[in-house]
Backbone:
C-alpha cells in the first residue's frame, strides 16, 4: 500500500527589522484596525532612535500599499504605552525592545 505525504507549507520567515540608523534601538510596531489592514500585518520589527524614524521606515517598507500612508497620517500613537499626543514625532525617543502602537481613529471618538 502506497502512502501519500502532503507537503507542509514552509513556516513564514520572520520579517527583518525595518532599516534604521546604525546602533538604533530595535522594537516592535503594532498596527490596529484599519492600520493593520493597510499594512497587511498586525506587527513587525522596527528600528529607530525616534518615532519619526520608525514611521518613515514603515512608510518606505509599505510603499506598495498606498492606503498605508493615508491611514498612518490619521493615526495616533502610543510608545511603550504612553500617548504621543501632539508632540513632534522627531522628539519622541524610542527604547531598546520598545513598542509603538499605531491606532487609527475609532468610530465614536
Residues:
Amino acid at each position: 500500500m502506497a502512502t501519500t505525504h502532503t507537503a507542509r507549507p514552509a513556516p513564514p520567515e520572520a520579517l527583518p527589522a525595518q532599516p534604521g540608523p546604525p546602533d538604533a534601538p530595535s522594537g516592535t510596531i503594532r498596527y490596529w484596525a484599519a492600520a493593520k489592514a493597510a499594512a497587511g500585518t498586525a506587527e513587525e520589527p522596527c528600528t529607530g532612535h525616534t518615532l519619526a524614524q520608525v514611521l518613515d521606515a514603515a512608510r518606505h517598507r509599505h510603499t506598495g500599499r498606498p492606503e498605508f500612508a493615508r491611514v498612518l497620517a490619521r493615526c495616533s500613537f502610543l510608545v511603550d504605552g504612553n500617548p504621543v499626543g501632539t508632540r513632534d514625532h522627531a522628539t519622541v525617543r524610542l527604547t531598546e525592545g520598545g513598542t509603538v502602537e499605531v491606532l487609527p481613529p475609532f468610530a465614536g471618538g
Notes: Helices lie at 33-39, 51-61, 66-74.
